[in-house]
Design goal:
294 residues, eight-stranded parallel β-sheet, TIM Barrel, 38% helix
Length: 294
């Protein structure tokens, strides 16, 4: 390759982050991170309602993450409970996904139903009270349960709470996770399982949380899947693969094209960043927000 020409990766990075460059350039020569209040808005187009998962930013307080998110142009913070809502509202942010029960003991086993459904009901009520739209749920691990039985049991569980969700206009979103790398034994590890579940429940309030990182590991074919099953997807998570790190040129998923596909479906929900930063966390969030502002 001609050394005088930009490499493909360098070109992608330089063009996709150009508008964020003035912000990154404000960092000191020593590489010190910007304070949350110093970040400037990078979300200009707004076709994607962006959010960030708090658990990925353990070094930042919720206040710090909210301040940075607000300044960057994000609209919400993901995977929190009611105790966090006053802080979110202080910054004019939503909770894009409310936590409920754990992921290993989920709806696919009847012995888990009482505990899981109690937490789902509480989160539906909290979402409705505060004007938020999504609560999370999980299939649980297989543990010897056949997939078809897991679907049957999950349908039984969801039909006990879906009326409440419909009445309060809240979505119950079941998350698609990979069982190959991160969550060994998890049942909802293929799109067909989740789509079958949604169809059998038969409610517009039961949706799929399509985690792009997990789906890439299990099945790939991300954009085709988004277009084929768009009516069943209520929420998205991002993450780079391999490694679940920054969603930039260091990994195999090209997020600008994925975000354009999501926007072109007419999706009005949230896309939450769920990557684990290897560099300065808030600077990485800034870069991701710009990259996804298609």
């Amino acid at each position: 390759m001609n050394k005088g020409k930009l490499s493909r990766r360098t070109f992608i990075r330089s063009t996709s982050l150009a508008a964020a460059g003035t912000v990154a350039g404000a960092m000191t020569a020593k590489g010190l991170a910007l304070a949350p209040a110093e970040f400037e808005r990078v979300v200009k187009n707004g076709r994607i309602n962006q959010s960030a998962c708090k658990w990925c930013y353990r070094k930042q307080s919720l206040d710090e993450l909210c301040a940075a998110a607000k300044n960057l142009g994000l609209k919400a913070i993901d995977l929190l409970g009611p105790s966090a809502f006053p802080t979110l509202k202080k910054y004019g942010l939503a909770c894009s996904m409310i936590s409920t029960h754990g992921l290993s003991k989920g709806l696919n086993k009847k012995e888990n139903h009482a505990e899981c459904l109690a937490k789902i009901r509480d989160s539906i009520d909290a979402a409705a009270e505060h004007g938020f739209i999504n609560v999370i749920s999980f299939s649980g691990n297989r543990g010897g349960t056949p997939d078809n039985v897991g679907i049957e049991n999950s349908v039984i569980a969801l039909k006990q709470v879906v009326g409440r969700a419909e009445k309060k206009k809240v979505n119950i979103c079941l998350e698609y996770l990979n069982s190959r790398v991160n969550h060994k034994g998890y049942m909802f590890d293929n799109m067909a399982w989740g789509v079958d579940l949604c169809k059998k429940v038969g409610s517009e309030r039961v949706k799929i949380l399509y985690d792009i990182y997990h789906a890439q590991i299990m099945e790939g074919d991300i954009i085709r899947t988004i277009n084929t099953y768009k009516e069943h997807i209520g929420h998205y998570h991002t993450g780079g693969n391999p490694g679940r790190n920054e969603i930039d040129e260091t990994q195999e998923l090209y997020y600008p094209a994925i975000m354009r596909a999501i926007a072109d479906t007419g999706f009005k929900g949230y896309v939450a960043h769920e990557f684990i930063p290897k560099r300065d966390p808030l600077t990485s969030l800034m870069e991701a927000a710009k990259l996804c502002d298609v």
